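Weekly puzzle thread! Below is a chain. First person to post its structure in token form gets bragging rights.
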Amino acid sequence: MLLLTPAELELLTGKTERGQKRYDSQAKVLEALRMPFLLRPDKTLIVYRHLVEPHGKAPEEELDAPAVLL
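Winning reply:
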């Protein structure tokens, strides 16, 4: 998949609120991390997987704490 899933985006940003408030707070975290993202017309966020994972590959093991792999 080319995009992060909603669950992966929550893990990346640490924001799990629901509805529009979640997207606003996730966008603020992504801006603070200087991570590029796009905003869809419905205000959901798009983050490309290759910006988070090396070579676009999924990590081979689950991480215990939220982490960003660069």
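Puzzle host: Confirmed. Bonus trivia for everyone else. The longest helix spans residues 20-32.
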